[in-house]
Amino acid sequence: METKQQSNGEMKEKKAVGKKMNWSGSLIVASLTGAFGSSFLYGYNLSVVNAPAVYIKRFYNETWERRYGFSVDDGTLTLLWSITVSIFAIGGLVGAIIVTPIVKFFGRKCTLLLNNVFAVTAALLMSLSLLVGSFEMLILGRIIMGVDAGISLSALPMYLSEISPKEIRGSLGQVTAIFICIGVFTGQVLGLPEIFGQESRWPYLFGAIIVPSLIQVVILPFLPESPRYLLLEKHNTSKAEKAFQTFLGKHDVSHEVEEVLAESRVQRNTKLVSILQLLRTRAVRWQVITVVITMGCYQLCGLNAIWYYTNNIFSEAGISHETIPYVTLSTGAVETLAAVFSGLVIERLGRRPLLIGGFGLMVVFFAVLTVSLTLQKTVHWLPYLSIFCILAIIASFCIGPGGIPFVLTGEFFQQSQRPAAFMIAGTVNWLSNFAVGLLFPFIQGGLQTYCFLVFAAICFAGATYLFFVLPETKNKTFNEISQAFAKRNKVSLEMQEINHYPGERKSSAEQESNFTSSVDNAETKKGIV
């Protein structure tokens, strides 16, 4: 008995050591660098337009008056500002649509690098718009920045999911959400009056976009491409082996290569699957539906409405107008801390509890917020309850719904399907984003404070669907996740081979042979030395 207990203890110890070793230096640098030049900029551009809004509108009016000899009317000014804000989502939709052929041809890492061309171009256009006296440059810069965001929110989760071991895939995937939150918070900080939140300095807010892009361009080229992409799509076994060694921090990567080859045996080919083919594939039907629902709820859950009400609620609580920008930083700080917490616990708790629990808590706090906003003029302490609800809703969103949809999209689909899946997810994401921006003013105008009940209903519907449909994907391979969905899709795992399409590639046996020969050659060289 003692011997068995000792051996079990040793096995557990080895597993624990293995899990610790999964976090290699190259893996950490790749995830941080990739996210800093990608999802960070998405979050930053969500919040950066809020602080200088008054000055930008004044710039629009002055430019209009200089051109046409009269001031712009309020309706036109509101339209121009609405276009400036919402056109970011249109650019994002374009980026999500074009990302599939780009990641297929250039690879995941090179796509992130090339995407910086959009970011730098947008930064130059927006930061120089005041100097040139052209508000069209600012609007054009926003749409180009949206294209950058649309590409990065698909390419980055794809890259992270393919370079990470399955034991830490969720934690590494949460880096996308964490850096979105850090980007939002950074935009809030730089927008303070003491920094760039002044009439003469607001262009610097947009010029700062260049910094993360340059850092990514300098560091990322020294890191490998996705080993799965190299092995399954470029059929380069030696480079894939080196990439695995770099990211995993160990020399023997035969198990990881074999695991990827096992997937290729099931799928028989790695020809890029189109969106139409993916939608017609019965073996992934419920995976696609789940991605669409989680991405739709990600944008339609009402977080944008929270930002709309924040200043008003802070004013009702007796906070002065001058102090509100500083108090608003608390929302960005809570968002960031909640996202970091999610990244730390996701591999322990799993995706299901965080995602379902996050939506469930949002339902509760939306209901309480509706009551407190409706009655806040009758009870003096209710505005403080409203502030608590706002922070609680933000935290509930970030612990699960804020990042896990991107993780699931990378986990549900095999190599040949992943680009099309991210394209579908990105399209739903950006269309929902645009719909919220377009419809929320009408919802708010018609329902007033009761508009939050609409978002509570969406969160409840999302949580209910996920409770009945979503399997736990923690520490599971693609084949294991497919098997979890197989019964609902009404297919056996073997039948999935029928759902894939022939393409020109080496057979998995050939790849395995190449890998074996490369290992043998390496061992021969060692013997000679």
Automatic annotation (TrEMBL):
Subcellular location field: Membrane
Region named Disordered: 503-529
Protein name: GTR9 protein
Gene Ontology CC, one term: plasma membrane
Domain of life: Eukaryota
Name of the gene this protein is made from: Slc2a9_1
Keywords: Membrane, Transmembrane, Transmembrane helix, Transport
Family the UniProt entry places it in: Belongs to the major facilitator superfamily. Sugar transporter (TC 2.A.1.1) family.
Gene Ontology biological-process entries: D-glucose import; dehydroascorbic acid transport
Matching Pfam families: Sugar_tr
CDD domains linked to this entry: MFS_GLUT_Class2 (cd17432)
